[in-house]
Amino acid sequence: MSDEKLVGIVLVSHSAQVAASVAELAKGLAGGAEAVPVAAAGGTEGGGLGTSAELIAAAAAAVDRGAGVAVLTDLGSAVLTVKALLAEGDELPGGTRLVDAPFVEGAVAAVVTASTGADLDAVEAAAAEAYAYRKV
Q: Going edge to edge, which strands form the sheet with 96-98?
């Protein structure tokens, strides 16, 4: 199964604990989805709150299986950091895409969809659809 080309997912949060917890939650709610490569890129290298281009680039490289990488972010400056990496062109694997989706619900939808072997467009669409999830 590890040779299967699956979309990789990177979860970028200002907090290492939040990123790791959302990754764990998404994989758990996706029935384990152990085959889906998911990486958390939270906080700074020193363990503080913030975002790190280096941690994001390393996470994207770690989950790249040749089917693209979906990057979901929590807050505004995380978006700016990912956009800057994408603009540089050589910092992230080819086929890396910033996905406009709610962080928790989008992560769950992305992991569930990726676990089916869906392509990057389908993973992005499923994550983005999470904006429509109603709670009341």
A: 38-42, 8-13, 69-73, 96-98
Dist CA 78 CA 121 (whole Å): 22
Predicted pLDDT of residue 33? 64
- Assess contact for 127 and 106: CB atoms under 8 A: yes
pTM, to two decimals: 0.94
Q: What is the 3-state secondary structure of the chain?
A: CCCCCCCEEEEEECCHHHHHHHHHHHHHHCCCCCCCCEEEEECCCCCCCCCCHHHHHHHHHHHCCCCCEEEEECCHHHHHHHHHHHHHCCCCCCCEEECCCCHHHHHHHHHHHHCCCCCHHHHHHHHHHHHHCCCC
* pLDDT over 50 (residue 13): yes
Mean pLDDT of the chain, nearest integer:
94
Query: How far apart are alpha carbons 41 and 23 in whole angstroms?
Result: 10
